[in-house]
Amino acid sequence: MVIFAPRYLLDNKSSHKLAFAQREFARGQGTANPEGYISTLPGSSVVFHWPRNDYDQLLCVRLMDVPNCIWSGGFEVNKNNSFHINMRDTLGKCFFLRVEITLRGATYRISFSDTDQLPPPFRIDNFSKVSRGVESQFGCFICGKVEYILPLR
């Protein structure tokens, strides 16, 4: 008996319609979708394979339902990992997706989920000898007030 299994499964657990492409095809596209891109609706999954094996095997993602959203940078999907991916629109606003890559059998499952309920994936270390004030321009990061970061000891 022979069992066929996909190598990559893209699982969209986010609330956005997502587009995926190999980095070589997404590079320089800005907000346009390149030839050969694939897309998923929220809550759906799609099997993925590399259109060209001679190019770097790096995946790019874009939020299709966010106006003027630009493609993310490429990232590896061939090892277990968990991280945030950042995309921007043409005005510079950031959009994050949580990415979780797990190997189950012969298939890498790449899950994309929203980060609305998670804290921003930033860490600020103060290596100076004086306190520094930090304020988020969006206000949600530190409740709209200046937060002081004490020097590391």
Automatic annotation (TrEMBL):
**Short name of one Pfam family:** VPS13_VAB
- Quote the InterPro entries the UniProt record gives: VPS13, VPS13_VAB
Residues folding into a coiled coil are: none
Where is the Vacuolar protein sorting-associated protein 13 VPS13 adaptor binding domain positioned along the sequence?
A: 1-130
What are the BP-aspect GO terms?
Answer: mitochondrion organization; protein retention in Golgi apparatus; protein targeting to vacuole
The name under which this protein is listed is Vacuolar protein sorting-associated protein 13 VPS13 adaptor binding domain-containing protein
